[in-house]
Amino acid sequence: MTVRTRVAPSPTGDPHVGTAYIALFNLAFARSHGGQFLLRIEDTDQQRSTPESEQAILDSLRWLGLEWDEGPDVGGPNGPYRQSERKDIYLDHVQKLIDGGYAFKCYRTSEELDALRAQKESAEVRTAIKASDLELPAEEVARREAEGMPFVIRMRVPEEGVCVVNDMLRGDIELDWAQVDAQILLKSDGMPTYHLANVVDDHLMGITHVIRGEEWISSAPKHKLLYQYFGWDMPQLCHMPLLRNPDKTKLSKRKNPTSIMFYERMGFMPEAVLNYLGRMGWSMPDEREQFTRDEMFGNFDISRVSLGGPVFDVEKLRWLNSVWLRDLSPQDFATRFAGWGLKEERVMPLIPHIMPRVEVFSDVAPLAGHFLSGMPALKAEDFAHNAYDEDKLMQTLQFGLWQLEAIRHWDRDAIQKRMFALASSLELKPKDFLFPFFIAIAGTPNTISVLDTMDMLGPDMSRARVRAAIDLLGGLGKKKLKKLEKEYFNVNKAIEEAIAE
User: Fold this and answer.
1) Mean pLDDT, to the nearest integer, of 388-406?
2) C-alpha dihedral over 402, 407, 408, 413, to 10 degrees?
3) CA 460 to the chain's CA centroid
4) Rg of the chain's alpha carbons, rounded to an integer?
5) I need a surface site. Which of 41, 47, 140, 499 has the fewest CB within 10 A?
6) DSSP string of 204-240?
7) Residue 253 is among the residues annotated as catalytic for this protein
8) Quick one: pLDDT at residue 116?
9) For a pLDDT cut of 90, what percent of the chain falls above it?
10) Residues 6+ apart with CB under 8 A from 168
11) What is the pLDDT of residue 315?
């Protein structure tokens, strides 16, 4: 048997270090067994998936030194490798489940589903929603079908008993069927959910081992059941421990930069980042901290993975990166630095903005230094401005961050539309509104347009700098954040309407 593993990211945002972590361990396992590694794009969420996000995933994984044998950009015998291009395949398989009595059309409305959930939550023993809760009488189904009401396809799930799932790290895991819902397999727009597409694709692509995050353990019974319904052998499962923040909470962008491209923009060496991810829950037989990708592959044994939640600590990563940097010769250091900081595609968009502002080359650094830096060295008093008190400043920065996070296609026009609409909603003049973003992004208001700066810095670094500014100003506790979320709801509604016009 040829070992075949895969990673299947969703192109719905910045490429996440968690994706790289799972990709690395899948690739390491495949290579250590002389096998193959696939990359599949799970873009069934048509509302949030973007080509830019897909390209960022491919670019960031390649930057780290990860490669795949089959995928959307390299082809292969098991394509297409984008789920949006496999719709007919899923429809065929859903029909087989319906014909076999393993799935059914569910015409329940959102109001009816809410009522069912409320009923389940109020029960003394809480259970998941099952087919017996959802199915309507035949005549009611016929009526709703005749009226053209929307429906989804759900799978039938046992109402009692225990499902035993074998995990390569944990052994047998017992999960109660009473807590597993009648999962939606096909959405009302005709696109599959993760659960159906994942199982069908893994089978048709010959995946032998599914190495994924432990958050998918609760979904394993649904997947095992689907394999049984189709009459297929199930791949071996391995659920990796989740990456954690230093405070042991699940790794999140609120507490740690999570975008792979943020680390590229910060000037980390890809070898060091990959080395650090390899240390997340795994170690070399000799326990050394520094090792190359190929050294990891040559010594890889998945049984050495520890189930304790590995802590992703940026300070530790900076230390490891410094070790890699000191191993470079002065010539290599100069070459690597120039390749990072002065590469043409990064510098050229900046030149037209600074040329009219400089008289000698030494004027460039004060104008453009923030393009070569990480987080600007700021003090809280840098944000002092007549238009702001403490609460208004935090509200503006946080609302601005949420608007930046909502941008799907990152460019100057999209940034300006959202930010100027927000300024109007907050009843701030554009110049006053942009001031705290000049400070957060550039460290000074005396530079080129902050909108142009964010466009050139990209979403990862721009958002990270605004988050860093909010933290510098004291951060937002749960209470404050909840209050701002309520205020933001109506503001954002008005902005979305304004943008849509």
Assistant:
1) 96
2) 180
3) 12
4) 25
5) 47
6) HTT--EEEEEGGGGGGHHHHHHHHHHHT-PPPEEEEE
7) yes
8) 94
9) 85
10) 209, 236, 237, 238, 302, 303
11) 95
